[in-house]
Design goal:
The complex is a heterodimer of chains A (244) and B (121). By secondary structure, chain A is of the alpha+beta class. Chain A contains 9 helices and 7 strands. Chain A starts with a strand and ends in a 5-residue tail after the last helix. The mean pLDDT of chain A is 96. The relative contact order of chain B is 0.13. The chains are: A alpha+beta (244), B mainly alpha (121).
Chain lengths: 244, 121
């Protein structure tokens, strides 16, 4: 049975508004109503000017990240039944607002691109058949390959909030994922960014990124493994000063 | 725009000392405190001789000297690294001054530990 539930949404239209403000909507909800359903209801029935991102409705596209009561969540994977007192939706923290719940993800995409999240330096030809890996080789990186680039970890990361130059959890995790892949030979290129003060060393192991990750990728583990890797790289560079 | 060619960070040195200090403080320091701080004053270790002479002998030996210096110094490096990053978290941005102030304190404690142990030898 549907009952009306309070949904506060942060609204901001840069063409009209001086600053963001909260608007309250009453949305009919039952046990199956997701935050995304609520947003769709608002747009369809209450205010068509509402802007928000969504696509797959099944926690795989990574588009619908929002702050729900100040916690980064996927709107499609969060349900109104868990917020009987009502809920407040805001755009992802640590990003600039474009309009309403839509943020400018450019800094995130720029970082993702910079760490080269693809296999590098493998000249294997299609004729040679599939590049098989042992289960052990795959187990090394498989967990880190589950990232859907939703950016919740960036909204959770206090270090990214304090230092916008920090490469951040997801990009560092993707770097780690490819560095661990037996088919890849691009580690040296990626280590240059990881070794910097805004690379793995921008992290102080708060661990909130891993808590909010909707795919249980555990970025905090990946970043801290990268610190060990960067320390080894540091020692090797000291022994070979010409490459430091 | 992000920096695509960053300078290598010197953080591995400080993070290494931080990790070593944390490990030492978590695993060895509690045992040391139990032995020296609790059981020794309570005479609870009848089977091990922890008399003053024995302890001075231990601290003066090469292994004992290294153990004592590390017991005093490593947790200090750990703590100072935390303070340095904690200042940043509290948005006290004093840059390299804060960083080197923290590590100089840890270095002074290390030096004092070496001097104290050397004075016993």
């Amino acid at each position: 049975m549907d009952k009306l539930q309070t949904v506060n949404v942060l609204r901001y239209d840069p063409a009209k508004d001086e600053e963001p403000y909260l608007e309250t909507f009453k949305v009919p909800a039952n046990d199956t109503t997701s935050v995304q359903d609520a947003l769709a209801y608002i747009k369809d029935h209450l205010d068509k000017s509402l802007s928000y991102r969504w696509s797959c409705r099944m926690a795989i596209c990574g588009s619908c990240g929002v702050m729900v009561n100040n916690v980064p969540k996927l709107a499609c994977k969060t349900f109104l039944r868990d917020y009987p007192e009502g809920l407040t939706l805001e755009p992802l923290a640590n990003f600039a607002i474009e309009k309403d719940l839509v943020v400018d993800k450019t800094p995130f995409l720029e970082r993702l691109e910079a760490i080269k999240p693809y296999i590098i330096g493998n000249d294997r030809k299609p004729e040679e058949g599939p590049n098989l890996q042992t289960p052990a080789q795959m187990a090394k990186y498989k967990q880190f390959a589950g990232c859907i680039n939703c950016g919740l970890c960036y909204a959770a990361c206090p270090q990214f909030g304090l230092n916008p130059e920090f490469i951040g959890p997801a990009a560092l995790t993707l770097a780690r994922r490819y560095n661990l892949d037996s088919r890849d030979h691009g580690k040296a290129e990626r280590m240059k960014l990881i070794n910097g003060k805004d690379g793995a060393w921008g992290c102080t192991f708060v661990g909130y990124c891993s808590e909010v990750c909707p795919k249980h990728v555990d970025p905090a583990a990946a970043v801290n493994q990268s610190k060990v890797e960067s320390s080894k790289d540091f020692l090797i560079a000291m022994l070979r000063p010409q490459e430091a | 725009m992000m920096n695509y060619a960053p300078k290598r960070s010197d953080e591995p040195i400080w993070w290494g000392l931080f990790g070593a200090g944390g490990t030492w403080f978590a695993i060895l320091t509690p045992v040391t405190v139990l032995l020296m701080g609790i059981l020794l004053p309570l005479h609870g270790l009848g089977f091990i001789d922890l008399s003053y002479d024995k302890l001075v002998n231990f601290v003066s030996s090469p292994v004992g000297a290294v153990f004592t210096v590390l017991t005093l110094a490593l947790p200090m490096w750990h703590a100072m690294h935390r303070v340095h990053h904690g200042l940043h978290d509290l948005q006290v941005h004093i840059g390299a001054v804060g960083k080197y102030a923290c590590y100089v304190i840890a270095a002074v404690v290390t030096l004092l530990a070496v001097i104290w142990v050397a004075m016993l030898a």
